[in-house]
Amino acid sequence: MFTGIVQGIAVVEEVTAATGLCTFAIRLPDDSAEGVSIGASVAINGTCLTVTKQTGNTLLFDAMQETLRLTTLGDLEPGHAVNFERAARIGDEIGGHLLSGHIHTTAKVVEILRPENNVTIWFDVPGEWARYIFPKGYIAINGASLTIGEVEGSRFNVHLIPETLRATTFGKIAEGMKVNIEIDSQTQTIVDTLARLGYDRPTTAL
To answer: What integer is the mean pLDDT of 51-78?
Structure first.
């Protein structure tokens, strides 16, 4: 499990493609890989991956075709920056909300507004996932636990403070980019339960 509190920015050093999977060599900041063991879980842009090898601060991960299809990991190249979070331990403070690291879908950045001292980013998700997105609800974007601002059909926005921009890759985000989305599990359970009872929510704005 993860908390959605990004622990820093890592850098992709190498991407090796093989039949059915890709291997990523990702360098974490100094001391951030201390105590990592083979088999440990680390969220890379919100995607839970398993450490297969460690060389200093560089960790290796394998991602299967299904993971590459459902996430943005297939677009990663050497030099790209990614958000990372090591798995939470019992007793850790939950500063965001509980995440599984299982990506539901991707969203596209459609607009970036830069009022003084903050940034507002608008995203567009596939229509079938809009049913789970509510104003003031939780969502994880590239592994960061964020609060949803406004919702308009399949579009929604989040408001980011300077610290979030500094500590994550959102500081370099641009229109047209794709991001990984993990829907809040409690919200998904409630919406799906109501749908089974006949209280379905429209997936698009009227």
So the answer is: 96
